[in-house]
User: Which sequence fits this backbone?
């Protein structure tokens, strides 16, 4: 049976609810722990979907000795993009997917920032509402969510949306079938490009929708230095309060997105 292959970058950013939801729908999961030296496979003919998780590193670390696996991930993602094979990228995984598809990845700044403001990165750490702009926000992957849905953010970088190459024939092409091309799926006030679909089977989510309560605690503890620096005095205590407040709806919406995604996979 074809399976999901999950690439885990660091010990404290785990697959969360992805594995149980996939298995409930009959999709077995294999996890490659890249930080332990597990190999990034070059060819994925037998894989139903490639899931690329998050981590504190970035596209700027590609080629570094410490994170040598990143370059291999990008090469594999390029092959998946070329073949329009199913990919789900989350946080860093979305950035790597965008990069592999030819889009620019760079430090996040507030949408509409002036050149002076653009020199001051605006990272997102903690809870924040996401919106689902039309038409990408009608994507079936996010069916059953809502504008203002609370999602968990833990990133400094963002990306441009990948673009399809211009057609060789300048004549207007026929109307594409549904779910092809690229689409912005969701945004926040601090970061416009929060989630996207590219071609028909490649999805990237900048925010975390997949985590469990244990996974959130693991991420915050595992990246505690970043949390203390970015959240400031009293920030960790507020983050824990916000987590208690938002967790029930977050888990429900995250499960909904994952179930939608599995139904999407089964349609292909």
Assistant:
């Amino acid at each position: 049976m074809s399976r999901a292959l999950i690439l885990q970058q660091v010990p404290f950013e785990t697959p969360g609810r992805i594995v149980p939801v996939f298995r409930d729908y009959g999709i077995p999961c294999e996890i490659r722990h890249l930080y332990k030296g597990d190999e990034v496979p070059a060819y994925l003919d037998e894989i139903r979907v490639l899931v690329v998780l998050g981590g504190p590193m970035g596209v700027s670390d590609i080629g570094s000795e410490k994170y040598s696996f990143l370059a291999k991930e990008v090469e594999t993602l390029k092959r998946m993009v070329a073949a329009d094979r199913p990919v789900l990228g989350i946080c860093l995984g979305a950035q790597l997917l965008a990069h592999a598809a030819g889009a620019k990845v760079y430090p996040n700044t507030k949408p509409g920032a002036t050149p002076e403001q653009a020199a001051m990165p605006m990272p997102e750490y903690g809870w924040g509402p996401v919106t689902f702009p039309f038409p990408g926000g009608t994507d079936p992957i996010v069916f059953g969510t809502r504008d203002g849905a609370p999602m968990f953010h833990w990133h400094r970088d963002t990306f441009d949306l990948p673009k399809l190459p211009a057609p060789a024939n300048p004549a207007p092409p026929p109307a594409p079938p549904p779910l092809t091309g690229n689409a912005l799926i969701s945004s926040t006030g601090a970061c416009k490009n929060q989630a996207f679909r590219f071609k028909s089977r490649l999805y990237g989510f900048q925010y975390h929708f997949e985590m469990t309560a244990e996974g959130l605690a693991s991420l915050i503890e595992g990246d505690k230095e970043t949390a203390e620096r970015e959240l400031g005095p009293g920030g960790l205590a507020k983050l824990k309060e916000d987590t208690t407040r938002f967790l029930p709806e977050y888990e429900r919406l995250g499960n909904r997105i994952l179930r939608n995604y599995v139904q999407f996979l089964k349609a292909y």
Q: What stands out?
A: The radius of gyration is 18 Å.
